[in-house]
DNA sequence: ATGGTGGGCTACCCA
């Protein structure tokens, strides 16, 4: 089973890129963030035609928005909710059956938090911190053993998740307070699947700013996108990859897709 | 120290 997470930065503008991604990477489930479209205008039929008949989306005008596109049938329950008393379309959660197990999948778009890393003067940063506190508290009371949590978290928590740990310590996305809160959330029940496959000593980015003239040459990236799994899924983890090629496509998103490959451990042993 | 780009669509928006 292959699951992708991608901040697509407008699903309508990048439908052709989505199609290309599907053709080259062939995922079973795609989690999108920043779809930037209201539900009435979501390109549902076009995506069904790409081979994803089971889909769920939650969008608002111009900002945010999340979607899950699937080849695997989805259970009818909807576990997603609003956070910080805002209906701002940052979370989708659902279940499906695979390997005779019930899987729970969460897709998050965490608030970016603005530029000033002080919650007393920057309400966007205060919102980001409150969002992290709320989700942490909520996940403390969850117990689904086969859970996957993906998305654009807008936080690069480890030293080698950014191009310069020292230069980014006061830059929102890598400040100690948000990194600590992200790790605390993760520790409620998840492990960082990307860092199981790619060791924390290695630089790893999923986002490169539009503002760099040559993103590859300067390579000032950050790992803002994440794939977490519950410990019971560690035996299912086959591979992780970051699809950097998409950053060079025409009209690229500033984020690239990240890929999670899981396999039934019982079948794994026979390989 | 500053500004750089891009998506939304006309907002001293958002990232």
Main features:
alpha+beta, DNA-binding, six-stranded mixed beta sheet, Deoxyribonuclease I, Chain A, five-stranded mixed beta sheet, 24% strand, 271 residues
Explain the layout of strands and helices:
Blueprint (H helix, E strand, L loop, with lengths): L1 E6 L7 H11 L3 E5 L10 H6 L4 E5 L7 E5 L20 E8 L2 E9 L13 H18 L6 E6 L23 H11 L4 E2 H5 L9 E2 L6 H4 L2 E2 L2 E5 L7 E6 L15 E5 L2 H4 L3
The structure holds one DNA strand of 15 nucleotides.
User: Number of folding domains?
Assistant: 1
Corresponding CATH superfamily: Endonuclease/exonuclease/phosphatase
Shape: globular
Structural class: alpha+beta
Q: Strand arrangement, largest sheet? A: 3-4-2-1-13-12
Task: State the total count of DSSP E strands.
Answer: 13
Low-confidence sequence ranges: none
DSSP summary: helix tally = 7
Strand content: 15-25%
Task: Write down the overall mean pLDDT.
Answer: 97
Q: What oligomerization state is this entry in?
A: single chain
Helix content: 10-25%
Order of helices and strands: EHEHEEEEHEHEHEHEEEEH
Molecular structure report:
- This protein has 271 residues and is α+β, with helices and mostly antiparallel strands.
- It has a single domain (2-270), classed as Deoxyribonuclease I, Chain A (4-Layer Sandwich).
- It has helices spanning 15-25, 44-49, 123-140, 176-186, 193-197, 215-218, 265-268; strands at 2-7, 29-33, 54-58, 66-70, 91-98, 101-109, 147-152, 191-192, 207-208, 221-222, 225-229, 237-242, 258-262.
- The strands form three sheets. Strands 3-4-2-1-13-12 form a six-stranded mixed β-sheet. Strands 5-6-7-11-8 form a five-stranded mixed β-sheet. A two-stranded antiparallel sheet has the order 9-10.
- The protein starts with a strand and ends with a helix.
């Amino acid at each position: 089973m292959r699951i992708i997470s991608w901040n697509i930065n407008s699903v309508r503008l990048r439908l052709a890129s989505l199609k290309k991604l599907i053709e080259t990477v062939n995922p079973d489930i795609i989690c999108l963030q920043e779809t930037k479209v209201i539900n009435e205008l979501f390109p549902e039929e076009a995506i069904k035609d790409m081979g994803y008949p089971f889909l769920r989306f939650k969008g608002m005008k111009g900002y945010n928005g999340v979607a899950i596109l699937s080849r695997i049938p989805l259970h009818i329950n909807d576990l997603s909710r609003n956070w910080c008393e805002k209906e701002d379309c940052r979370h989708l959660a659902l279940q499906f059956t695979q390997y005779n197990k019930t899987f729970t999948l969460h897709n998050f778009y965490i608030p970016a938090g603005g530029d000033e890393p002080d919650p007393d003067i920057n309400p966007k940063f205060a919102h980001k911190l409150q969002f992290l506190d709320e989700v942490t508290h909520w996940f403390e009371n969850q117990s689904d053993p086969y859970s996957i949590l993906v998305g654009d978290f807008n936080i690069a928590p480890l030293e080698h998740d950014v191009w310069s740990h020292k230069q980014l310590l006061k830059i929102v996305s890598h400040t100690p307070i948000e990194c600590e809160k992200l790790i605390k959330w993760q520790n409620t029940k998840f492990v960082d699947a990307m860092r199981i496959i790619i060791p924390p000593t290695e630089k790893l980015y999923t986002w490169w700013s539009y503002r760099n003239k040559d993103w590859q040459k300067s390579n000032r990236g950050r790992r803002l996108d994440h794939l977490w799994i519950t410990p019971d899924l560690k035996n299912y983890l086959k591979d992780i990859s970051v699809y950097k090629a998409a950053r060079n496509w025409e009209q690229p998103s500033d984020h690239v897709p990240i890929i999670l490959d899981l396999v039934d451990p019982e079948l794994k042993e026979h390989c």
